[in-house]
Amino acid sequence: MKSVLEKNVVLVLNRNWQAVNTTTPAHAFCQMASGNAMGLDMEGTESMYPVGWDSWVDLPVRRSDWSVGVVKGALRVPRVILSVHYGKVPMRHPKFSYQAIRDRDNGCCQYTGRKLAKDEGNIDHVVPRSKGGDTSWSNCVLSCKRVNNRKGDRLPNEAGLRLLKKPESPRVMPMTLFLRNVHDIPEWEPFLIQKNAINS
Questions:
Q1: Is there a contact between 165 and 110 (Cβ–Cβ < 8 Å)?
Q2: Beta bridge pairs of residue 121
Q3: Sign of the torsion formed by the C-alpha atoms of 51, 54, 58 and 62
Q4: Is the pLDDT of residue 196 over 50?
Q5: Is pLDDT at 143 greater than 70 in this prediction?
Q6: What would the pLDDT profile of 43-55 be if each residue is shown by its tens digit?
Q7: CATH number at residue 151
Q8: Residue 81: is its pLDDT beyond 80?
Q9: Which of 66, 93, 104, 165 lies at a CB distance of 3.0 to 4.6 Å from 77, suitable for a disulfide?
């Protein structure tokens, strides 16, 4: 089992206070000690103060804080750090996957337009693999399983189907959009873009 020092439980902000990455507490401590980052001393989401390493090591550890043992006692683990020199927002192209296809197609069958529950859809190769179709953004769509089974090994027009829109590769997007609070850390919430805002 990983210790808290080895888990990505620290949110990294650029110098413009935009979320750009996550990291481990061990790496966050290194960034702070070298002067490349400051920890955010936070009381919920109401007050946030950037604190440099020399002051951070003297902060008291509150009951709600994570901490690690050091020679002087306990050292508070930051939940959010602020990069001092880094101002960019890294860009990322979504990785090809069922979920990425589902997100691109807004959870709708690309033949019927019906909104699909997670277990109702699968990936359809518009040009079947048996006919030379590849597994790519421009040849795959979200399809209702029933419709996909009916289409089988045929082109859409051969199966009496028509695509609602031509499938395309999703555009490159800011890394901020891909960050998820999988550990439910309340201090991250002011800096993350909600998933429903991405799809609207």
A1: yes
A2: 144
A3: positive
A4: no
A5: yes
A6: 866 789 999 999 9
A7: 1.10.30.50
A8: yes
A9: 66
Structural domain contains residue 146? yes
Give Dmax (Cα) for the chain. 74
Pairing of the two strands 140-144 and 80-83: unpaired
For tokens 């002051």, what's the residue? 55
Does 141 map to a domain?
Answer: yes
Amino acid at 108: C
* Residue appearing with tokens 């951070």: 56
Same structural domain, 130 and 184: no
More confident residue, 69 or 52: 52
- Residue 111's CB is within 10 A of a number of other CB atoms, namely 23
Taken as a whole, the chain contains a residue count of: 200
Structure tokens at 75: 């050292």
Query: Which 3 state secondary structure label does DSSP give 173?
Result: strand
Angle 114-115-120 from CA coordinates, rounded to 5°: 95
Does some domain include residue 169? no
**Per-residue pLDDT band at 194 (split at 50, 70, 90):** low
Q: What is the extent of the structural domain holding 115? A: 98-159
Let me know whether 147 and 183 are in one domain. no
Same domain, 9 and 52: yes
User: How does residue 197 score in pLDDT terms, banded at 50, 70 and 90?
Assistant: very low
The residues, any chain, with a CB within 8 Å of residue 153's CB and separated by 6 or more, are 128, 130, 131
Number of domains in the chain: 2
